[in-house]
Amino acid sequence: MSDTPIQRKPLPKLDRVLAAHERRARLIAQLHAQAIAAASDLSVQRKAIRAGTAKDAGRGRAEAWFCAGAFIFALGGIVTVGCVLAAMVAWQ
Question: What is the pTM for the complete model shown?
Answer without folding.
Answer: 0.39
